[in-house]
Amino acid sequence: MKNLNSFTISIFLLIFGLSAAVNAQAPDNDQTRQKKQEYLALVEKLKKGVPDVNFGQLRRAFVEWRISGGKPEEHPKRAEMVKAFGSNNHAEAVKLAEEVLDMEFYNHNIHGAVSDSYKALNNTEKSEYYNDLFHKAQHGLFLSGDGRSPETAYYVLSIPEEYRVMRELGLTVTVQSLLRVKGQAFDVLSGKDAKGNEVSVYFNICFFFPCQRL
User: Is pTM beyond 0.85 here?
Assistant: First the structure.
């Protein structure tokens, strides 16, 4: 993994840490609580390396928690964690991050920051563990769906992720449109492949766009 200085880490966590969508908690209900527990159960399995669980499933569970009416709360120590990373207080940063991560286990940037800090602390085992999670969380986008239909859309957490998918699929975007199916919102990006064929890719955008509750 490319090393990141602490200033860059802080910028990632503040700007691209995806916390903007998790600032407050909406009123709870039975379905919201159920979806939250499904998400947290997947987090525990990923921590233990359960082989039949992946970060694509985690993304879907997190977004479905949000769609169910929940507004996953930001961990109260998140700002303190970002400050610790920014001041190169690696020992404090990793301590706080391991508390914060349950709420943002899908966030590859935090895993990467923790890996870098453990490397600075000469803890190779922990650095490699979080580096592995960094790559798995980053790849989770491509495990969340196949983009061929609304039912199998990729679950994205930001618009830049849509363009990342298109780039990695080798598609040049020509048209972008919004689609609603059964109260759920999708971006549909059309592009041309290397042979000039038009291909449409579907993205579930309910993480940052209003959608009907599940």
Answer: no
